[in-house]
Amino acid sequence: MGSQQLGTGLLEQAGQVAAKRVVLAEPRGFCAGVRRAIGIVERALDLHGAPVYVRKEIVHNHHVVAELAARGAVFVDSEEEVPEGAVCVFSAHGVSPAVRSSAADRRLEVIDATCPLVAKVHQQAVRYARHERTILLVGHADHEEVEGTRGEAPERTIVVETEEDVARLELADDAPVGYLTQTTLSFDETARVVDALKRRFPQLAGPQGDDICYASQNRQNAVKELARTNDLVLVVGSHNSSNSIRMVEVARDHGARAHLVPDPDRLDESWLADVRSVGVSSGASAPEFLVRRLVERLAELGYGDVEVASGAVEDVVFAMPARLADPATGRIPSTPLAEERH
């Protein structure tokens, strides 16, 4: 475990109680898909000026949404709320073909910020439907990503969340079926359901490659380590961020007290009672400046020693859409590290 001193801190001395500390998870925060999606909205504003309409929240973090709104992004629940002919960005979670058709009918200038990993799942759903397989989609029925994937073949898709759902499926055991998973769920979350599907359906087809988002798995693995070595785990993320909420649950499952922190300025100090070591991480849609604010707040409360845990190295970068190229040079901008601008 590496160590970086952020501030003076309390030095542990012989005969004294060990200094209170903060341990930062690595990796944490923005994934490649989130960086790309935020960068797409920012680039669209640069090219087209305000307003740029965004269908749903571009990512599930209210701080990110508020900042983009201040720059001129207008967030709407439906493409039908967008004026005809206007610029409309689809969120990182993806949309169904019906939404794309509706946007075309309204002559919207669509810029697609769907995460490439989500787009890959959509393509597999289309392949399953083409081969007349029933699609068993492992995920949360009310999540935007699942709504979009299910829309590729709604008459053939069944959402399953639990092993009990698998047992209740009204399908013959020899039925031609294929499974997909919501990308923001980790392997740990989907493994038991997928195993139940494999036991029941001998002809079960699986996705080509791994549907699971590397970022979800990496962040949960890092949180497990935080839970093992710290008294308390704090996860920075919004209440509507499923991956952030799941990170809190993982920490609790592995023996630590854990809480979600949507706003570091409103940290509940009662959580720190009898706590000497605080592990800190953040969901895949949480900007790094919120983590810095939390670390600063903890330092004010006596947790001045900061360490950075070693973990998986993420070097994935997703390209920006070609339509966002510079009109003068034709150059496609690289995906910006949006959190570095705070």
- Helix/strand class: alpha/beta
Largest sheet: 6 strands, mixed
- Catalogue the unreliable spans: 1-16, 337-342
- Determine Rg (CA atoms, Å): 22 Å
Helical residues, percent:
25-40%
- As a percent range, the share of strand residues is 15-25%
Strand order of the largest sheet: 1-13-2-12-10-11
Which sequence of SSEs, written as H and E, runs from N to C? EEHEHEEHEHEHEHEHHEHEEHE
**Total helical segments:** 10
Shape: globular
**Count of beta strands:** 13
The average pLDDT value, as a whole number, equals: 91
Give a topology summary.
Blueprint: E1 2-3, E2 21-24, H1 32-48, E3 52-55, H2 62-71, E4 73-76, E5 87-90, H3 97-105, E6 109-112, H4 116-130, E7 134-138, H5 144-150, E8 157-160, H6 163-168, E9 177-181, H7 187-200, H8 214-229, E10 232-236, H9 242-253, E11 257-261, E12 277-282, H10 288-300, E13 305-308
Parallel strand pairs: 2-12, 2-13, 3-4, 3-5, 5-6, 7-8, 7-9, 10-11, 10-12
Antiparallel strand pairs: 1-13
Helix pairs in contact: 4-5, 8-9
Describe the overall structure.
- The chain is 35% helix and 16% strand.
- It has helices spanning 32-48, 62-71, 97-105, 116-130, 144-150, 163-168, 187-200, 214-229, 242-253, 288-300, and strands spanning 2-3, 21-24, 52-55, 73-76, 87-90, 109-112, 134-138, 157-160, 177-181, 232-236, 257-261, 277-282, 305-308.
- The strands form three sheets. A six-stranded mixed β-sheet has the order 1-13-2-12-10-11, with helices on both faces.
- It starts with a strand and ends in a 34-residue tail after the last strand.
- Mean pLDDT is 91; it is low at 1-16 and 337-342.
